[in-house]
Amino acid sequence: PSRMGLDCAATHILNGMADQEALNALLAGRDSWNTYREQHPADAQTRVDLTAANLIGADLRHLDLKYADLNGAVMVGARLLSADLNGADLTDAVLVGASMDGTDLSNATLVGANLAAADLGSSAMLGADFSGANLAAVSWNDVAMWPEGFTPPSA
Q1: How many degrees, rounded to 5, is the angle at CA 55 between CA 51 and CA 58?
Q2: Closest Cα to residue 40, out of 58, 23, 52?
Q3: Contact (Cβ atoms closer than 8 angstroms) between residue 52 and residue 71
Q4: Which residue has the higher pLDDT, 16 or 38?
Q5: What would the pLDDT profile of 48-89 be if each residue is shown by its tens digit?
Q6: What DSSP designation does 16 have?
Q7: Which region holds residue 128: left if phi is over 0, alpha if psi is between -120 and 50, else beta?
Q8: 109 phi/psi in degrees, rounded to 5
Q9: How far apart are CA 71 and CA 146, in angstroms?
Q10: What's the distance, CA 120 to chain centroid?
Q11: Reduced to 3 states, what is the DSSP secondary structure of residue 144?
């Protein structure tokens, strides 16, 4: 297993669309990812491509995933505590049971994402789009900022 706690063989099977250099940096750990991000800054027009990445159970705590394209990524049980996902595209991502306490989801796109049983406590969500997302049994404790007009479902 890699330092991120993932089976590398299984990771390669599911990661047919992600930028392999970016994915390798992410799976190698925090220092490798931070170096990659310094060399490849992202913004709304230039996104880091992690499309359909297999990040099941990954430790992504405190990482800069700002403007990352995680469209269709499988992140079941991932640890994203205090990660920066500002402006990230998580369309159709699978985040079932993910620990996202304190995560910045401001301006993130979570259209059709599956967040069932995820912990979004203390997260910032201003401008996030949850259209069509599965929000069953999500923990919303102490959410810092809600998207305008958004009403969370009851747990």
Answers
A1: 145
A2: 23
A3: yes
A4: 38
A5: 999 999 999 999 999 999 999 999 999 999 999 999 999 999
A6: S
A7: beta
A8: -105, 115
A9: 22
A10: 12
A11: coil
Q: How confident is the model at residue 16 (pLDDT cuts 50, 70, 90)?
A: low
Helices (H), the chain: 8-14, 20-28, 30-39
Residue among 59, 73, 69 at smallest CA distance from 30: 59
Report the alpha-carbon distance of residue 116 to residue 127 in Å, rounded. 20
Residue 34, C-beta contacts closer than 8 angstroms, at least 6 positions apart: 64
14 phi, psi to nearest 5 deg: -90, -10
Other Cβ atoms closer than 10 A to 151: 7
Tens of pLDDT, residue by residue over 107-130, are 999 999 999 999 999 999 999 999
Other CB atoms within 10 Å distance of the CB of residue 82: 16
Nearest CA to 136 among 109, 111, 154? 154
pTM, whole model, 2 decimals? 0.85
β-bridge mates for residue 69, sequence order: 49, 89
The mean pLDDT of 27-51, rounded to a whole number, is: 93
